[in-house]
């Protein structure tokens, strides 16, 4: 069962009804960077935070992202060796192709 299914199952067990305005776990994962950088619209931010209030898994994911960012600090493109940069870009390209 994926994160979205667990979250929806939890809502149904707790008697919560899903609405069209609710944010799914996968949507939250896609928006987490914009949330942390303050780039969500007010409506998106409300939906994001409403989801967090109901989903323990997504709260844990957000905290994990905050800790990862804190541990890594600021990494600039210039600080990455060209060979490493190409390997990373290759991995992301492959991931993107396989996730579509």
Entry summary:
With 100 residues, the chain is mostly helical. Helices cover 71% and strands 0% of the residues.
Topology:
Blueprint: H1 3-13, H2 25-36, H3 42-54, H4 56-72, H5 82-99
Helix pairs in contact: 2-4
Could you name the key traits of this structure?
single chain; 100 residues; mainly alpha; 5 helices; 71% helix; 0% strand; elongated; disordered N terminus
Walkthrough of the structure:
By secondary structure, the chain is mainly α. It has one domain (3-75). The chain contains 5 helices and no strands. The chain has helices at residues 3-13, 25-36, 42-54, 56-72, 82-99. Helix 2 packs parallel to helix 4. Mean pLDDT is 80; it is low at 1-6 and 9-18.
- Return the structural class: mainly alpha
> Largest sheet at a glance?
none
| Helical coverage, percent range | over 70%
What is the end-to-end distance?
A: 19 Å
Mean pLDDT: 80
Query: Count the helices. How many?
Result: 5
The counted number of beta strands is: 0
SSE string: HHHHH
Low-confidence stretches: 1-6, 9-18
Shape: elongated
- Rg from alpha-carbon coordinates: 17 Å
């Amino acid at each position: 069962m994926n994160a979205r299914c667990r979250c929806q199952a939890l809502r149904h067990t707790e008697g919560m009804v899903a609405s069209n305005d609710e944010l799914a776990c996968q949507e939250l994962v896609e928006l987490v960077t914009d949330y942390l950088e303050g780039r969500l619209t007010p409506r998106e931010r409300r939906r994001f935070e409403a989801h967090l209030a109901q989903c323990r898994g997504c709260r844990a994911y957000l905290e994990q992202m905050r800790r990862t960012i804190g541990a890594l600090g600021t990494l600039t493109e210039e600080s990455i060796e060209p060979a490493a940069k190409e390997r990373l870009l290759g991995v992301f390209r492959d991931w993107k192709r396989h996730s579509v």
